[in-house]
């Protein structure tokens, strides 16, 4: 389901490598959802959220530094979307996850699917042009 395909490539090696890592994290969440042998997935879900929080902050900072270095005209819009992504991750209620693990994973996956599909294809691709 979560696979870095050619259409997601920006042509900027560092950005593309970091996007691959985001796809890897999303794939890990998807695989956890489908793992029937782990009854209590709470600790795994929290670990994925923490990994996303930490990794996206680094990725966004690197991407924004690159955009600034090339004088990218749409940088303000990108920064706003990056901040919204981080805020969304920060708003996740860990008690809700504990009580509704499958539903929580599905929400995280929907969010990542939208983000990876739309943000990269509609916004990040333009950085490389």
Automatic annotation (TrEMBL):
Positions of the Hemerythrin-like domain: 10-124
Record-level Gene Ontology MF annotations: metal ion binding
InterPro entries: Hemerythrin (IPR050669), Hemerythrin-like (IPR012312), Hemerythrin-like_sf (IPR035938), Hemerythrin_metal-bd (IPR012827)
Entry annotated with the keyword Ribonucleoprotein: no
Highest taxon above the source species: Bacteria
Annotated keywords: Iron, Metal-binding
Pfam family, one: Hemerythrin
Protein family according to the UniProt entry: Belongs to the hemerythrin family.
NCBIfam families attached to this UniProt entry: bact_hemeryth, hemeryth_dom
Protein name: Hemerythrin
Organism: Anaeromicropila herbilytica
């Amino acid at each position: 389901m979560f696979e870095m395909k050619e259409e997601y490539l920006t042509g900027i090696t560092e950005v593309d490598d970091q996007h691959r890592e985001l796809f890897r994290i999303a794939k890990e969440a998807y695989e956890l959802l489908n793992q029937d042998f782990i009854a209590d997935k709470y600790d795994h879900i929290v670990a994925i959220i923490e990994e996303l929080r930490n990794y996206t902050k680094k990725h966004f900072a690197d991407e924004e530094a690159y955009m600034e270095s090339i004088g990218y005209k749409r940088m303000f819009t990108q920064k706003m979307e990056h901040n919204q992504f981080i805020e969304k991750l920060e708003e996740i209620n860990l008690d809700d996850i504990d009580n509704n693990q499958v539903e929580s994973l599905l929400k995280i996956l929907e969010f990542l699917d939208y983000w990876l599909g739309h943000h990269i294809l509609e916004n990040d691709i333009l950085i490389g042009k």
